[in-house]
């Protein structure tokens, strides 16, 4: 049942309203003044405030403001019998949903009340929608975000767009200190601000874990002083929390004395802060996981090479060449990352090859060569259960495929061979030819270029080969000192 709080000093009107509304099925609590309503409400709930504007003691608009603090969702209808145009304008600005001119009929009263309730509900839904829409966007964006700076950047733009905030800043708690890690629209002198937890507005939020909606004067010294000092007309500060732990504070403010922030903005910001905190935690976990994952890759890569001292560093250098080529060919950040990992692991399957074949210094017999050709198959078996991406797995599996289809293990041809594998194949050749092996002389890059030209379209993808030749000729490929044999790709 809808409950209406009625405040009206004229007894006849009060009784009339009560009768009409009760008959219509509303529950009416009536008071003869604003003061009486506030004193006797005792926390009871209601859906709509129906009040006269002019009453002895607290007037209708003041009553509205006071009740709104505790009943944010209430709808409001005012009697405008003796309202001046200014009070009505003010009432409109405050968001009051309905107006009834005295004298009124029962139908007018009921239809105004009904439409006020409807309007209020739509408004609430709208607020919720306003909260939900950017969230859908932010969720997708943040979950995909793997860089904290980008994460702050995107979140700040969404916040600025949705709340029309002029300034946005993120502070992170480190021990008992707080550092501003991101600032938008903030004058340089405040941008790198640091404070102690407990100090100032953000410090209070970090310390208590509660939000602050700053509007006008608060009669709290540290708040008023900071708002004045930083020229803040209106602002919101909300904590960034992971479970009950405050990890930072999100602040927004407006400098110009325009429309102040409201509860809907606070609601929106609190939800965004929640999402951001979760994404930050995900990023932290992901980074930690990533580090241990890379350690596994490195350990596996080293394991291959402990068997054969002469190829030590081979995988790292192949990874390095492959990633340079991939970057030059315009592959995405993720693809380059995958190629690096695949480069490190491309020969991991050699763990499964008998030592007498693996370490043989002369030419391999037909049979030995067939056994050696199994190493991509072994690699798939070793890497698949570890959870490497499909790209990494297929790049490793196919690094011995030939462009003309005569390679192994699957005899793939042309562009059916993944681009990562076509790049790895050339990187592998460059490294093998230019490194020092006891059983043959080290060749130089000119020999490699000749080999690439000879094998282009046969063993090698002509596009990748051409790119490498171009890279070599422009001096980029040799910016690495390959004779030191100590180049390891940067893993993080
Ligand atoms: Fe290989
Ligand atoms: Fe290799």
Strand-helix topology:
Layout: E1 3-7, H1 11-23, E2 27-31, H2 34-41, E3 48-52, H3 60-70, E4 75-79, H4 85-94, E5 98-100, H5 106-144, H6 148-163, E6 167-174, E7 177-184, H7 188-191, E8 194-196, H8 200-208, E9 212-215, H9 221-229, E10 234-242, E11 245-254, H10 263-307, H11 314-328, H12 333-345, H13 355-358, H14 366-372, H15 375-383, H16 390-397, H17 419-434, H18 445-455, H19 462-473
Parallel strand pairs: 1-2, 1-3, 3-4, 4-5
Antiparallel strand pairs: 6-7, 6-11, 7-8, 9-10, 10-11
Helix pairs in contact: 5-6, 5-10, 6-10, 11-12, 11-17, 12-16, 12-17, 15-16, 16-17, 17-18, 18-19
The protein binds fe (ii) ion (FE2) (2 copies).
Describe the protein's architecture and organization.
The structure is a single chain. The protein has 492 residues and is of the alpha/beta class. The chain folds into three domains: 3-126, Response regulator (Rossmann fold); 145-282, GAF domain (Beta-Lactamase, 2-Layer Sandwich), CATH 3.30.450; 308-484, Hypothetical protein af1432 (Orthogonal Bundle). 53% of the residues lie in helices and 13% in strands. The protein has 19 helices and eleven strands. It has a six-stranded antiparallel sheet, sandwiched between helices. A five-stranded parallel sheet has the order 2-1-3-4-5, sandwiched between helices. A hairpin with a 2-residue loop joins strand 6 and strand 7. Helix 12 packs across helix 17 (419-434), helix 15 packs antiparallel against helix 16 (390-397) and helix 16 (390-397) crosses helix 17 (419-434). The longest helix is centred in the middle third of the chain and has 45 residues, at 263-307. It is elongated and about 115 Å long. The protein starts with a strand and ends in a 19-residue tail after the last helix. Residues 314, 318, 346-347, 428 line the site of one fe (ii) ion. One fe (ii) ion (FE2) is lined by residues 346-347, 375, 399-400.
